[in-house]
Design brief:
By secondary structure, the chain is an alpha+beta fold. Helices cover about 45% and strands about 10% of the residues. The N and C termini lie far apart (about 65 Å). The model has no long low-confidence stretch (mean pLDDT about 90).
């Protein structure tokens, strides 16, 4: 049994707003002991340096088997009833390196550069639909369908199935917030059945897609079980679009809120690569990186953590650490020290899809600014709604009006 005192109870909305989180915590100390919105006790790391230290520490593991017994009820993805948790995100060495190696070739910078023309084509097709209308919900018409189309094509998911898997993926990304335990289990079972059928089809008719590639690696003798194959396919499907949806929607909103920065970026598209990272830092798609458990007692930034405790990295707060980012509440598309950005995590679990997400961001923002002018919110900013989650910072809708260039 963990012995904890002084837990600060936190509500969901503060995780997407670093200033609100710092206020709720009472100070800007880099580590705090808190109660998450679902009641789960955790050590919350908000400092950028402390976060990088924690994410590099091999004593903080992803396996829920290292968690204190009283924490297991908060983790439905580790339940015996949930079928698809054998993927690299919840794996520790040496399994992590084995699983990551099997899919890393699909996300190299060279492979992503080869995909840019197709990403551009999809983006143009989506904007072709909305350009004559003068107004649109940019979550529904751009931020959501673009990354879904890209990752679906990479994995070989038939176009007709995308809406259905998007619906079930929404349930999984609502973990510990808008989705209940039973909903998570049901969505996992749907994906297990769906992916088993898809894998069977790809075995019979291989294609130039990632699932076919994993099957080929398995048949060539790489140590990959059928369950690991399906689990990693699910991880790539869900992680491959959810965070990019938020990057696009949150980034567009930031540009709407800062018209001068929007105009400067429209005038000089060469700034797009740096702008993507700054937009991600300014309004992080991922509020928290959860499910790290202390395999033994340790210290982070001088803070003592007990064996079995749950350690959470507040990525949005770490991206607003004034010790690293000067005037962090200011959007600066020319900011130079973005190497400390935690938008894609850090350490061995650094996001494989980072080059792909950056490419989609550059193409989506650049095309939007090139083809649509006079971009403005079509509702009062106070009317915007965010998905209930302390893990992801996700707009439900982004209504805008514009003029086709």
């Amino acid at each position: 049994m963990l012995q904890r005192t002084g837990e600060i109870p936190l509500t969901t909305h503060v995780f997407g707003d670093p200033e609100a989180l710092f206020t709720a915590l009472g100070d800007r100390s880099p580590v705090h002991r808190v109660a998450l919105p679902d009641g789960m006790p955790a050590v919350l790391i908000t400092g950028n340096g402390a976060a990088r230290e924690a994410l590099s520490d091999p004593r903080l593991v992803r396996s829920v088997s290292a968690a204190a017994p009283e924490l297991h009820r908060f983790h439905p993805l580790a339940s015996d009833d949930y079928p698809l948790s054998r993927h690299m995100l919840f794996a520790d060495p040496p399994d992590h390196a084995r699983l990551r190696k099997l899919v890393s070739k699909a996300f190299t910078r060279r492979r992503v550069e080869q995909m840019r023309p197709r990403i551009q084509e999809i983006t143009d097709e989506l904007i072709d639909v909305i350009a004559p209308k003068g107004r649109a919900d940019l979550v529904e018409t751009l931020a959501l369908p673009l990354p879904i189309a890209v990752i679906s094509e990479m994995l070989g998911v038939p176009f007709a199935d995308r809406a259905e898997f998007e619906r079930h993926a929404e349930v999984l990304t609502g973990i510990n917030a808008s989705s209940g335990f039973d909903d998570i289990i049901a969505a996992g079972r749907w994906f297990d059945t769906y992916l088993a059928e898809l894998v069977t089809r790809r075995r019979a008719e291989p294609g130039d897609d990632l699932i076919s590639g994993m099957i080929a690696a398995q048949e060539a003798g790489d140590r990959l079980t059928d369950l690991e194959l399906r689990s990693n396919a699910l991880l790539l499907l869900t992680a491959g679009f959810e965070t990019t949806v938020n990057l696009l929607a949150n980034g567009i909103l930031a540009l709407l809120r800062h018209p001068r920065q929007q105009a400067e970026l429209r005038a000089d598209p060469s700034r797009l690569p740096n702008a993507v990272d700054e937009l991600m830092r300014f309004d992080s798609p991922v509020s928290c990186i959860t499910y790290h458990f202390a395999a033994e007692p340790l210290e982070v930034a001088g803070f003592a953590i007990e064996q079995g405790e749950h350690v959470v990295i507040a990525a949005a707060a770490a991206n607003h650490d004034p010790a690293v980012f000067d005037d962090p509440a200011r959007l600066d598309l020319g900011r130079e020290n973005l190497g400390y950005l935690l938008g894609f995590s850090h350490g061995i679990h650094y996001c494989l899809g980072a080059p792909l997400a950056r490419a989609e961001g550059e193409i989506a923002f650049g095309t939007l600014l090139r083809r649509l002018s006079q971009l403005k919110l079509d509702v009062p900013e106070s009317a915007l709604e965010w998905k209930q989650s302390f893990v992801l910072h996700r707009l439900r809708a982004l209504p805008v009006r514009f003029t086709a260039a």
